[in-house]
Amino acid sequence: MAVESDVMEAAGPYDRARALSAFKLGDITFYWITRACAISVLLILGGIIISLIVGAWPAMREYGAAFLWTQRWAPSADPPVLGALGPIYGTLITSVIAMMIAIPVGLGIAVFLTEICPLWLRRPIGLAVELLAGIPSIIYGMWGFFVLGPFLANTFQPFMISIFDGVPVLGAIFAGPPSYLSLFNASLILAIMVLPFITSISVDVFKTVPPVLKEAAYGVGCTTWEVVRNVVIPYTRVGVIGGIMLALGRALGETMAVTFIIGNSFKIQSSIFAPGTTISAAIASEFAESDGLHQSGLILLGLLLFVLTFFVLAAARLMLMRLEKKAGN
Amino acid sequence: MNPIYASRRRKNVVIKFLCLCAAAFGVTWLALILFTLFYNGLTGLSLQVFAQDTPPPGSTEGGLRNAIVGSIIMTVIGVGIGAPLGLFAGTYLAEYGKHDKLTSVIRFINDILLSAPSIIIGLFIYGAIVVPMGGFSAFAGCLALAVIVIPVVVRTTEDMLGLVPNPLREAASALGLPRSLVIRRIAYRAARSGLITGVLLATARVAGETAPLLFTALSNQFFSLNLTKTMANLPVTINNFVQSPYAYWKELAWSGALLITLTVLALNIGARILGAERTSK
């Protein structure tokens, strides 16, 4: 509280001018400190972009755009051949499957929490879902590795494989052999991880629906489902999509939950029960032991991931901002 | 009854049931994860875990002391750097630049950094700190954590200061208090529990972060307090032990996971209780 005593002393009746100038100095200093800190947020983003580009430059010069559609990843070959197609494919496919599971379930929980659930149960279930969001991703990864992976490989995968065996396209998607480490297991863990994001944002945007609208719909005899379908969802569509995009951004960049369980194989296989890799998993498992062109290639992968998530997250934020404006009016 | 009514009602019941299933599905995962964590973690949890350092390969003598201490040090320093920076930046957004262009740009960028993949932050610190400094260091890990803390604190600070009623500021200004003191003495005090909530949430977020530490702080088999060298930490130790062939290492990994999860859940619940106090006042 040194500042306080200084100010108090200076503010005596005989030294008004000095007190005022002390105030002014303090004011200006504080203003510039906060402003500098605010601008440092921009500097962090700039630093991320610059350091990624500098690190990725050798690989960019060596491989050019062909990096994007080369499948072979052979860092120890001479000269090393690096292609990002495998990780890009794995990133996209795991995120898409994860979202296919998480969107209906997440929205279902949100509808349950806002429309169906008895009041006394709302807080505990809401809290449980939010705590699920707080669990560190390495715990999910570990749990997937020790518990979920073996379970899926022993029960769920053989079941799906036997059902779809011989069916034209689906047979290839669900082809064996069952494995602890697979794209599907990683997708399921991702789905569980992003579920809370979708739910909590959907609950928030569902709450922005004016009660009068819902009451009017109930008043003319709509069922709960009809109110949700025809009033709540249309009113909050932009916000819900924004929340989904936000979750997609998370899923694309999620690292530890996926690394343990995806198998780290750069080969693209048609079966979702086969091992694969994602951009973040490739970086996490290879970066510490890499050097030279290999390391630069991994940083280039990181740059790709950053650009991808940047656009997804930017789109999500723009949509959520549009909804906020609407709610503000 | 009119068949249309019956079918509408049936549809409603089916959908309601599906929503119930979805909620049960979500809660079941939480229960399952916590159950396996406690089941596997508690058996290995003993005084030894806190008193001894991580064991060499194959040994069954050892604990997680160095990793626990390292994690605490790095989290505290990371939050210590990131939280004040985020607090001031959030102050600027909420108090000074509420309506200017710069603020909306910063807010937008901050929201993106908030959900940017943490492994990218690790790559950034690797390129910006580890390479120029010539080696992995605990300090680089602290900075990586700080970069993750900043957006969280900026966001909550801005939101919480936004909740402080304006008449409070106007009254203080009318008494002749300069702007910076209005913010520090009035707005901060009114929003105090909210600001602490933000810092707690940020701490919870970084306490279990693994990806940015993988190639900044690395890990260390021995006890070390030197910030310029690699330092053991719980998340990376768990990461290494899970994939090892030794049963005792896996047991330790479960104990470490239980410790991290309990810490993070406690921080989250603490933050929520503080937040709830605020709204009920």
Automatic annotation (TrEMBL), chain A:
Transmembrane parts of this sequence: 32-57, 88-113, 125-146, 158-176, 183-203, 298-320
Pfam families per UniProt: BPD_transp_1
GO molecular-function terms, A-Z: phosphate transmembrane transporter activity
Keyword Membrane: yes
Keywords, ordered alphabetically: Cell inner membrane, Cell membrane, Membrane, Phosphate transport, Transmembrane, Transmembrane helix, Transport
Domain ABC transmembrane type-1: start-end pairs: 88-316
Topology of this chain in the membrane: Multi-pass membrane protein
Superkingdom to which the source organism belongs: Bacteria
Biological role stated in the UniProt entry: Part of the binding-protein-dependent transport system for phosphate; probably responsible for the translocation of the substrate across the membrane.
Family membership: Belongs to the binding-protein-dependent transport system permease family. CysTW subfamily.
NCBIfam families (alphabetical): phosphate_pstC (TIGR02138)
Descriptive protein name: Phosphate transport system permease protein
From TrEMBL, chain B:
Transmembrane portions of the chain: 67-93, 105-129, 135-154, 194-215, 252-275
Leader sequence residues: none
Topology of this chain in the membrane: Multi-pass membrane protein
PROSITE patterns with a match to the protein in the record: ABC_TM1
Pfam families documented for this protein: BPD_transp_1
InterPro entries per the UniProt record, alphabetical: MetI-like (IPR000515), MetI-like_sf (IPR035906), Phosphate_PstA (IPR005672), Phosphate_transprt_permease (IPR051408)
CDD domains referenced in this protein's UniProt entry, alphabetically: TM_PBP2 (cd06261)
A GO biological-process term: phosphate ion transmembrane transport
An annotated GO cellular component: plasma membrane
Name of the protein described by the UniProt record: Phosphate transport system permease protein PstA
The organism of origin for this protein: Bradyrhizobium lablabi
